[in-house]
Specification:
Order of helices and strands: EEEEEEEEHHHHEHHEEEEEHEEEH
Largest sheet: 7 strands, mixed
Strand content: 15-25%
Shape: flat
Helix content: 10-25%
Radius of gyration: 33 Å
Length: 467
């Protein structure tokens, strides 16, 4: 028997490292050739790492969330034959001697939890796991189990208050109209103290309230008992930020820390556009398959026309070099929400596509993004971005620019509003555009001119088709 070391392969041109986002195996597992061992992420593309041989997992070289350099050992296998390990092999790590990642409670094809299991401990002597925290938890649970009923003494019972010093909720309020049992002296004491006797649990016969019950109530404070089924939840779950979520966090932090945003909100009357869109979607041509048009293809074509007048909006700003890269090709990113998080597939060369081609490409990229099959090329290279939450778009938003771009157009939800036409109020389909610009290179005036041009095109949609 020998050992076979698997190193992180080159997962893309120019990539020097990748983040481990998922283990599909654990120490002690038997794997076959081509079995998926792990998944790593570079930028926003996830790559699966298969096993080149059959064998048994002896050692895992990284934890979920670790950044691993290309060529670094990530898995050690016990294989038939000599294997490929050179020199003296480090101490083997077995399932019995090394804490292994536990399966995530969410499941998901071998996904593992982010519990710390330092790979360095693979070569050190095993020490018993510290159980102080676990014992403490057990002690807390035991204390909770042994604590008396929340209704100490009950509304009518004769129980006693706890002696541990822990104060629980008071007795439940009596039904409206039912008078609590108490002597005149006790009632006078309660009146003077401002205590509602219906909230006091009596410890005497038949739930009679005594002076000691009033004193205990005052010591605890006038807290109303919780309804049945309600309980405090003091649990705290630590969730490690890894994979796509970490990429999003880094990108948002970079954008907000380096780009001074200016956000411009404008109201658009899309009544005519919606009528045109409905008419085009109803039109059928024999032998021609066309996608169902949404608002986005119209907006994309309007942006292309507006950018032809202001090409500086279609730029990437290298703030370290102090250079603005103004692009001729208009590559529009479409921010898309997926089960894994936010991604931005890119419609390349929107200037060369008509409204139907834009619609077809948006549909294709959206499906690829949601299914997780979008390629690295499809998720990169944008020069300006559109963000839309559809019906959840809100009245106005403050979009975060996709660094190093200089502009992002935000689409808010459409709604019917009354609009004054000079003689009367009429119902119109209205929608806001909330757009952000990099104020270092885009002045407020230029931003306003750009959005006003888009507004004109969307409110008079026939102009979109005029060259």
């Amino acid at each position: 028997m020998g050992e076979h070391i698997i190193k992180l392969p080159d997962v893309g041109e120019g990539v020097a490292e990748a983040e481990l986002v998922e283990w599909h195996v654990k120490v002690g597992d038997i794997v076959r050739e081509d079995s998926v061992l792990a998944a790593v992420m570079t930028d926003k593309a996830t790559v699966e790492i298969p096993s080149p041989v059959d064998g048994e997992i002896l050692w895992l070289g990284a934890e979920i969330g670790d950044t691993v350099a290309i060529g670094s050992p990530i898995v050690r296998l016990k294989v038939a034959g000599e294997g490929n390990a050179e020199g003296a092999a480090p101490a083997k790590v077995t399932a019995e001697s090394t804490p292994t990642p536990n399966p995530s409670p969410q499941g998901g094809g071998g996904r593992v939890s982010t519990t710390k299991a330092d790979a360095k401990s693979a070569t050190s002597k095993n020490a018993p796991r510290t159980t102080g925290a676990r014992e403490s938890d057990t002690g807390i649970r035991a204390a909770e189990t042994e604590s008396p009923s929340p209704l100490w003494g009950g509304a009518r019972g004769g129980g006693t208050a706890p002696t541990s010093g822990v104060v629980g909720p008071v007795g439940a309020p009596r039904p409206e109209g039912e008078k609590p049992l108490a002597s005149p002296a006790v009632r006078l004491r309660a009146k003077e103290a401002g205590v509602d006797l219906r909230q006091v649990a009596g410890s005497g016969p038949a739930g009679r309230i005594g002076h000691e019950d009033i004193e205990a109530f005052l010591a605890r404070g006038p807290r109303v008992a919780r309804a049945p089924g309600l309980a405090r939840n003091d649990a705290v779950e630590d969730i490690k930020v890894v994979g796509l979520r970490r990429k999003i966090a880094e990108k948002m932090t970079l954008s907000k820390s380096r780009i001074p945003h200016i956000t411009y909100v404008e109201e658009i009357d899309v009544t005519a556009l919606e009528d045109l869109r409905a008419a085009l979607n109803k039109e059928k041509r024999p032998g021609v398959e066309r996608p169902k048009l949404t608002l986005l293809p119209f907006l994309m074509r309007a942006m292309v026309k507006a950018i032809s007048d202001q090409p500086n909006l279609n730029s990437l700003f290298d703030d370290e070099a102090g250079v603005i890269h103004q692009h001729g090709g208009i590559h529009i990113g479409i921010a898309a929400q997926t089960p894994s998080g936010l991604v931005v597939p890119v419609v390349k060369h929107a200037e060369a596509r008509d409204i139907w081609e834009c619609g077809t490409e948006v549909v294709r990229l959206a499906e690829a993004a949601k299914s997780g099959t979008a390629t690295r090329d499809e998720l990169s290279g944008s020069t300006i971005t559109i963000t839309s939450l559809g019906a959840m778009g809100g009245v106005a938003t403050t979009p975060v620019i996709n660094h190093p771009e200089v502009a992002i157009i935000g689409v808010n939800k459409m709604m019917v509003r009354p609009v004054w036409d000079g003689t009367q109020f009429i119902p119109r389909k209205m929608m806001n555009l909330s757009s952000s610009f990099d104020h270092r290179v885009i002045d407020g005036w230029d931003a306003a001119v750009f959005i006003q041009r888009i507004k004109t095109l969307l409110e008079t949609p026939a102009l979109i088709f005029v060259d």
